[in-house]
Amino acid sequence: MRSRSYGPDLTPPWKRSRPVPEVPADDGLVVEEAATGFCGAVVRCEKTAQGPTVTLEDRHGRHRVFPMEPRGFLLEGRPVTLVRPAARPPAAARGPRLTAS
């Protein structure tokens, strides 16, 4: 008998997981990886076969790669979900680099 396996609609509100904010993983953002406690600044974001990853650099210059999982990182002690930063427009769309002056 499975009397304790209720669906999510019968779960009390205080047991439901709250949504966490999605933060763009911009270069230089300092976060902590929740599972290992590794703290570092974002160096790069990549798309791999296993999914998107983020590379963090700690204060000693060591790099480690982590998957971008929901609730996978802490920002100022609170769980967040890192997402890939918005793509910058190409150089031609930003305008000319040289001016007439």
Could you characterize what this model shows?
Helices cover 4% and strands 38% of the residues. With 101 residues, it is mainly beta. A hairpin with a 2-residue loop joins strand 6 (73-75) and strand 7 (78-83). The chain has a seven-stranded mixed sheet with strand order 1-7-6-2-3-4-5, with no helix packed on it.
Secondary structure elements and pairings:
Blueprint: E1 22-24, E2 30-33, E3 39-48, E4 51-57, E5 63-67, E6 73-75, E7 78-83, H1 91-94
Parallel strand pairs: 1-7
Antiparallel strand pairs: 2-3, 2-6, 3-4, 4-5, 6-7
Short key terms for the protein model shown above:
101 residues, mainly beta, SH3 type barrels, seven-stranded mixed beta sheet, 4% helix
Largest sheet: 7 strands, mixed
Mean residue pLDDT: 85
* Strands side by side in the biggest sheet: 1-7-6-2-3-4-5
**Class of the domain at 20-85 in CATH?**
Mainly Beta
Low confidence ranges? none
The count of DSSP E runs of length 2 or more, i.e. the number of strands, is 7
Rg from alpha-carbon coordinates: 20 Å
* CATH topology value of the domain at 20-85: SH3 type barrels
Span of the ends, CA to CA: 81 Å
Helix fraction, binned, reads under 10%
Q: Count the helices. How many?
A: 1
Q: H/E series, N to C?
A: EEEEEEEH
- Rough outline: extended
Portion of residues in beta strands equals: 35-45%
CATH architecture of the domain at 20-85: Roll
Structural class: mainly beta
Compact overview of the structure:
With 101 residues, the protein is mainly β. The protein has one helix at 91-94, and strands at 22-24, 30-33, 39-48, 51-57, 63-67, 73-75, 78-83.
